[in-house]
Design goal:
The complex is a heterodimer. Chain A is α+β, with helices and mostly antiparallel strands. Chain A has five helices and twelve strands. Chain B is globular. Chain B has one domain. Classes of the chains: A alpha+beta, B alpha+beta.
């Protein structure tokens, strides 16, 4: 149904030109302020109230100062194609057209310290294969599932622009273009035979940190456009570390012994958005229904495959900004 | 002459009204005193296959009908289009393409949905393609202008213990069932969620569309609470099924 917005489609189309200005990255652990830890308002069931709109890619005024944050739009391991919001994609498209160098992005992977995902050799080769083909698809499997409007799944859904948090007694609800409903009552994950695009989430609060245990992934989605991936054996522990009213640190530790040599952790800063629009409403997103025509996509792939075998230049892909 | 099906439905509605009065005091309530509709709900009816009374056939079990009064009051041209839709339903039903289902069809699509409720809004999560509706109960009106949405714009208020939801801003791309019943972008739906007891809701949706129907008409189904231990929403991302083989 409702995957990629117009802005996101633009990002995907120009992901190759999508780094943004180099900005300081948030450390994995929030620094307590001099005034002591943040004391949030509490909801009727005792949860810290963290409701509202949040984004991994934008600008917000925090304590009178503008703060910026960036998602890992293209690759969570950074590099020249590391991140950027909609405006940065447009800016960098212009830079690229002028032949100017594009700024580089630090990795969002904070452990291991080299910022790289500790793949097993076969898995590293698979990631490289996906990345090499994603912008020049000649086979159905080359296409980023997100481009087909399929659900992002955990981690990518956090990096993929704006989301809304609603809280209800016993639940945290995260509304992306789909939703993740996180029960807080300690119930176990469903049978491991159940594999889901959005996985299954179970949460609890540790002070001002929401800890979410994620399992039951169908592993068909990717962690970013650069082809970083996990298997359906993956186990993710997310930590939403709220240190103040308008920003939090998102941390996800990813464990999958069938793909990696050790667990690894990705982290990014998330900031509030629509702060000055108290009446802002999240309206209907659609994607599968209109924005992506699967027959056209398939035809493009066949055309590209034909051009490749007949030695013609690869046709340009994507729309203009 | 009143049909058998409509007689059954009218008596069901009458008995539901009596039951609701009898059990009103047993309902869970939110701090502001309204019935708490939170929970996972699902219909037990083939209404999503065909709203009208029909015998069993390949694509549907038999059904007593969910249209109050029995007949959908189509304008003549629209009746012909409905017949054409029926003939081509396997290829033309938007739900067979996994499009968002529209209102009220999303309610009687035979998959569970979960209502989350607070004082200024209800959020409804549907297992079918991760659809989400926000029903605002904060006194706001529909946004200005016509907007083409699959699930429309929902503004609700409480009429006693009944949640009344006014829904407009639809596109003309959804059907009301698999049998080709359809509407235009002028569709205006008024849903009434009336608790029968703590585990049942009488759901009536009036359907008005001056481009397609001669008068407003009403769909009536019962929502059943899913009470199995550990029950939760899963996924039905049916648009991915044909492509999952590319992502082993």
């Amino acid at each position: 149904m409702t995957r990629m917005t117009g802005a996101a489609a633009l990002v995907a189309a120009f992901a190759a030109f999508s780094p943004g200005p180099l900005l300081a990255q948030t450390a994995a652990k929030p620094a307590p302020s001099a005034a002591g830890p943040w004391v949030p308002a509490k909801l009727s069931d005792g949860q810290p109230d963290v409701q509202g709109y949040w984004t991994a890619g934008g600008t917000v005024e925090v304590n009178g100062e503008e703060e910026q944050t960036r998602g890992g739009t293209y690759s969570i391991t950074g590099g020249p194609l590391g991140g950027g919001g909609e405006q940065e994609v447009i800016d960098n498209y212009k830079l690229a057209q002028q032949g100017k160098p594009l700024p580089s992005w630090p990795s969002k992977v904070v452990d291991p310290s080299d910022g790289q995902i500790p793949y097993q050799p076969w898995a590293q080769a698979k990631q490289k294969y996906i990345e090499a083909n994603v912008d020049h698809a000649t086979k159905q499997e080359h296409l980023d599932p997100q481009e087909r409007c399929f659900l992002d799944g955990p981690i990518r859904d956090t990096f993929h622009y704006e989301f809304k948090i609603e809280q209800y007694p016993g639940y945290v609800l995260i509304l992306h273009e789909g939703y993740r409903l996180i029960p807080l009552d300690g119930r176990p994950h469903p049978d491991s035979a159940i594999k889901l695009w959005n996985s299954d989430s179970r949460g609890h609060w540790e002070g001002n940190t929401l800890v979410v245990d994620v399992a039951n992934s169908n592993s068909k989605g990717r962690l970013d456009r650069a082809g970083n991936f996990a298997s359906d054996k993956v186990h993710i522990v997310e930590r939403y570390i709220f240190s103040g009213p308008n920003a939090f640190t998102y941390q996800a530790t990813v464990e999958d012994p069938t793909v990696y040599t050790r667990p690894w952790t990705v982290s990014t800063k998330i900031i509030r958005t629509h702060l000055k629009e108290p009446d802002y409403e999240k309206w209907e997103d659609e994607c599968w229904e209109h924005e992506r025509n699967i027959k056209e996509l398939s035809a493009e792939i066949e055309q590209a495959a034909h051009a490749k075998t007949s030695g013609k230049a690869h046709p340009p892909q994507g729309a203009q900004p | 002459m009143r049909s058998f099906a409509s007689t059954v439905w009218l008596s069901l509605i009458a008995s539901a009204a009596l039951t609701a009065a009898a059990h009103a005091q047993d309902l869970a309530r939110t701090p502001d005193g309204h019935p708490d509709l939170s929970g996972i709900w699902q219909v037990i009816t083939p209404a999503g296959q065909d709203l009208s009374a029909h015998a069993a056939r390949k694509d549907s079990p038999a059904h007593l009908g969910a249209v109050v009064g029995g007949d959908i009051p189509y304008q003549p041209w629209a009746l012909a289009k409905k017949a054409e839709n029926f003939k081509n339903r396997e290829t033309q039903d938007p739900q067979n393409k996994c499009f968002m289902a529209g209102v009220p069809r999303i309610t009687y699509t035979p998959l569970p949905f979960q209502i989350l409720q607070k004082d200024k809004q209800l959020t409804v999560l549907y297992e079918y393609v991760h659809s989400v509706r926000t029903i605002y109960t904060n006194g706001t009106d529909h946004p200005p202008g016509h907007i083409d949405w699959f699930l429309g714009d929902s503004r609700g208020h409480w009429d006693g213990d009944t949640l009344v939801v006014d829904v407009v801003d639809f596109n003309d791309e959804t059907w009301l069932d698999h049998a080709g019943d359809f509407h235009s972008d002028q569709l205006h739906v008024v849903e009434r969620y009336k608790p029968i007891d703590k585990d049942h809701i009488q759901y009536d949706a009036s359907v008005e569309d001056p481009k397609v129907f001669t008068r407003p008409w009403t769909v009536s189904v019962v929502l059943y609470r899913r009470i199995e231990p550990g029950v939760q929403l899963l996924e039905n991302e049916c648009y991915t099924f044909d492509y999952e083989k590319f992502y082993p």
